[in-house]
Amino acid sequence: xxxxxxxxxxxxxxxxxxxxxxxxxxxxxxxxxxxxxxxxxxxxxxxxxxxxxxxxxxxxxxxxxxxxxxxxxxxxxxxxxxxxxxxxxxxxxxxxxxxxxxxxxxxxxxxxxxxxxxxxxxxxxxxxxxxxxxxxxxxxxxxxxxxxxxxxxxxxxxxxxxxxxxxxxxxxxxxxxxxxxxxxxxxxxxxxxxxxxxxxxxxxxxxxxxxxxxxxxxxxxxxxxxxxxxxxxxxxxxxxxxxxxxxxxxxxxxxxxxxxxxxxxxxxxxxxxxxxxxxxxxxxxxxxxxxxxxxxxxxxxxxxxxxxxxxxxxxxxxxxxxxxxxxxxxxxxxxxxxxxxxxxxxxxxxxxxxxxxxxxxxxxxxxxxxxxxxxxxxxxxxxxxxxxxxxxxxxxxxxxxxxxxxxxxxxxxxxxxxxxxxxxxxxxxxxxxxxxxx
Length: 438
Fold this sequence. Notes:
The protein is an alpha/beta fold. It has helices at about 15-30, 35-40, 50-60, 65-85, 90-100, 115-120, 145-155, 170-175, 210-220, 240-250, 265-285, 330-345, 360-370, 390-415, 425-435; strands spanning about 5, 105-110, 130-135, 160-165, 180-185, 200, 225-230, 235, 290-295, 300-310, 315-320, 350-355, 375-380, 385-390.
């Protein structure tokens, strides 16, 4: 279970690397040495002390580490005062969402503690972090795992209960050495960093939230991702262990009458699903998921979306299949509604289709209830089908109307009490204009 997220600071919370490197170049110039930006890139994620020691060794400087650090601090302080540190866009929103979900958080930065405190307080992030761990606290900086091992100890969590977000090669190496799964942030201002040790790479924090990092955590450990819940159902990724139960559902002739993607042998279906987990769930972030009863965790079918070539065009298709013992109870509409909501509202998909056999009366009914519209008749997998379509625009309009109707119904329930002999003039004034809308 994910309990903690550990953040690097420079390049992850604040876009400080360009300023840090320029300050370093200017500082060294005062000692008669010219260094380049490419040379400085090796110090991203490395402590200030180790950085200065290497510069002294490489250029045979006679000054002390303390002298270089002092000049660098003065130079950086002046530049920060003039230019400031730009925060990484959307990272604060992401941190706030993790905080709301009860996730422990810490900063584990190679920078001096004073710098970490200044940055986190200036950006209004300090209050969200349970621990601040700096390069001052450990003997060996990244790529050694010391700072992450100390952070785990301070947070009171194990390596398997945490994830680290890093923008540097040294940071990702340290995360791997600490046996903690790492998310690599591709910050263009952090130089050409090798983040191949990270389990997933991101280019922005714009779409990052608790659900995303929880999903990536589960995928990193080979655990199924829970997609969404309804009143009666849980929709989550299918595991290899689920395939036997799923295959049993397939065997009923009425269930597989309109299903064409089932193998004749369980062993083949299991092998196919192993590849599906890796190449579909992990790569696209969506697929055909399992549908489970919330009260019993019984697998009753599958539902989801997947890419498929339909009528010579790559489409994202909605599909479902349910155990015959659960037909006629509204589960088909319940799970497909939840999947459409997830696809449009969370994944941001713009168009979803359903290719339905003309003889499949149940699925045709579900498509219509979902607000899907028939676009054309096609031949699909040697079947005469109707292609039903719903766009995000249509979905949004439909749900705005539904929400408006629900609000009006609530108002009318209040207004219905106005005939009970109670003085409700205040409420009448407040709600009359809504009644007039009808």
